[in-house]
């Protein structure tokens, strides 16, 4: 679904945006753009970053971040994240854009009643159409157990948050979270995540039909794969109200190997999870997992993630589903030539505009131990070679960068975002756009450096509703003796 953020959350297993600080494993390489791309043009126009309206008044604890953005149509988007109130309690917020104008951020309605343990967060947002969105995340109940919630926006009004139906009975160890939400149309969404059991966690899926959430179920087949081990569902994408795909990772009790899985919903029925075909042969180091899934149409999806090779070096993979059949995972073409550092690479996010036409992003480590960001495109079902994000090397003088989110409105018209460290050791945020198959040079988010007086900023989420009409969100730090973290939004 191209309207939704391809990676449902700004947080992924490949890049951690925690506590306001961009912590990026892996590192950099020499900038190399295939000659097929020709000269790299100047960056396309992005508007200035602005503080999320109304968030400062909520954020009395001075720690806020936008974690997810989704656009139902051009100029009609939603964003969500978290902040701290005056008592230092974590709270979740949502904010909506209508006709190009952002309203004031609000605490998620009804979440305070659930959040008696004083810790909540919106992790993922997805919009099926203008003013009709869904969000999910977690909260801590009065027993201080972590539980999962969903909340809907209908006709521009956010309703009350509810605990994911049926999940309380499953979550016997109090470790619940919604990791990803995807809406194919208004009132027709899916959410995935995990819940706790005595010996670990289990991945779950839950579907919304015509505005009503059903009961959560364990991802079918995962128990067989894990043989009593643990699992987490990390990403979901819905091409229609009755066709979605989910990806994640699982492991075996008392053993180290971590593997990636995918599962598909067809005609409203979830099929059994399978290990990503071919990933086992790549993942000889035993650290594989799916970070992001995107479906362009029913039965035509892509998934990306990371694995460890026989030398223990992390690598990135892509795998495609065509006509309902998942192909074999392959190492991202060309990434091995870039990825010289032992800490390795990973693919963070994928977005598919149409069947066989996708873009994926991530990071790698060059021979000098510097973290860099890459992009790779699929055209007509064939993945091209990965290359360093144009212009990012010039920004990334601190040697730590990664691309964490990508969104494609149409084939060869995409946008990607992430973070890097400048020569002064300050974390900054960037955006980069693709037009007609040509990736422009990465630029600082206009206006973000002026906001980021504390030297700690990043962009974690992007969503494009139409070609070159996108929205992005993240965080920045203000320095008033101590760092004060605030959330921002920007649009192209």
Q: Can you tell me about this structure?
A:
This protein is mainly β and 492 residues long. The protein has a single domain (16-491), classed as Prolyl oligopeptidase, N-terminal domain (Methylamine Dehydrogenase, Chain H, 7 Propeller), CATH 2.130.10. 7% of the residues lie in helices and 53% in strands. It has eight helices and 41 strands.
Search tags:
mainly beta; Methylamine Dehydrogenase, Chain H; 8 helices; five-stranded antiparallel sheet; 492 residues; 41 strands; 7% helix
CATH architectural name: 7 Propeller
Can you summarize the main beta sheet? 5 strands, antiparallel
Briefly note the CATH topology name.
Answer: Methylamine Dehydrogenase, Chain H
The radius of gyration over CA amounts to 20 Å
**How many domains comprise the coordinates?**
1
**E-strand count:** 41
Q: What is the CATH superfamily classification?
A: Prolyl oligopeptidase, N-terminal domain
CATH secondary-structure class: Mainly Beta
């Amino acid at each position: 679904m191209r309207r939704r953020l391809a990676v449902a959350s700004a947080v992924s297993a490949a890049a951690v945006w925690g506590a306001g600080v961009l912590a990026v494993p892996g590192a950099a390489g020499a900038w190399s753009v295939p000659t097929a791309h020709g000269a790299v043009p100047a960056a396309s126009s992005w508007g200035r970053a602005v503080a999320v309206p109304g968030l400062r008044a909520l954020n009395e604890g001075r720690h806020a971040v936008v974690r997810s953005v989704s656009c139902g149509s051009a100029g009609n988007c939603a964003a969500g994240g978290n902040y701290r109130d005056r008592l230092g309690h974590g709270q979740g917020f949502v904010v909506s854009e209508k006709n190009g104008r952002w309203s004031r951020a609000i605490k998620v309605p009804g979440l305070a009643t659930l959040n008696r343990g004083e810790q909540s967060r919106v992790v993922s947002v997805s919009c099926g159409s203008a003013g009709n969105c869904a969000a999910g995340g977690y909260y801590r109940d009065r027993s201080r157990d972590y539980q999962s919630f969903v909340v809907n926006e209908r006709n521009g009004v956010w309703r009350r948050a509810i605990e994911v139906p049926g999940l309380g009975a499953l979550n016997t160890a109090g470790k619940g979270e919604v990791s990803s939400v995807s809406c194919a149309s208004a009132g027709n969404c899916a959410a995935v995540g995990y819940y706790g059991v005595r010996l670990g966690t289990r991945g779950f899926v839950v579907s919304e039909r015509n505005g009503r959430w059903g009961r959560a179920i364990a991802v079918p087949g995962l128990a067989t794969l894990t043989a009593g081990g643990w699992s987490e569902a990390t990403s979901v994408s819905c091409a229609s109200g009755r066709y979605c795909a989910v990806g994640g990772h699982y492991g075996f009790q008392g053993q180290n190997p971590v593997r990636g899985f995918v599962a598909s919903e067809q005609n409203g029925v979830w099929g059994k999870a399978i290990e990503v075909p071919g990933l086992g042969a790549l993942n000889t180091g035993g650290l594989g997992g799916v970070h992001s899934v995107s479906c362009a149409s029913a039965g035509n999806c892509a998934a990306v993630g990371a694995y460890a090779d026989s030398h223990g070096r992390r690598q990135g993979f892509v795998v495609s589903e065509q006509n309902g059949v998942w192909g074999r995972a392959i190492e991202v073409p060309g990434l091995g030539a870039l990825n010289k550092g032992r800490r390795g690479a990973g693919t963070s996010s994928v977005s598919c505009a149409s069947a066989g036409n996708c873009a994926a992003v991530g990071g790698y480590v060059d021979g000098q131990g510097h973290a860099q960001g890459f992009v790779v495109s699929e055209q007509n079902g064939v993945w091209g070679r990965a290359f360093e994000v144009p212009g990012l090397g010039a920004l990334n003088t601190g040697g730590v960068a990664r691309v964490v989110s990508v969104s494609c409105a149409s084939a060869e018209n995409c946008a990607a975002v992430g973070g890097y460290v400048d020569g002064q050791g300050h974390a900054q945020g960037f955006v980069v756009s693709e037009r007609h198959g040509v990736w422009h040079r990465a630029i600082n988010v206009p206006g973000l450096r002026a906001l980021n007086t504390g030297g700690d900023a990043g962009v974690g989420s992007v969503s494009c509703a139409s070609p070159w009409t996108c929205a992005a969100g993240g965080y920045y730090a203000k320095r008033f003796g101590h760092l004060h973290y605030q959330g921002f939004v920007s649009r192209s």
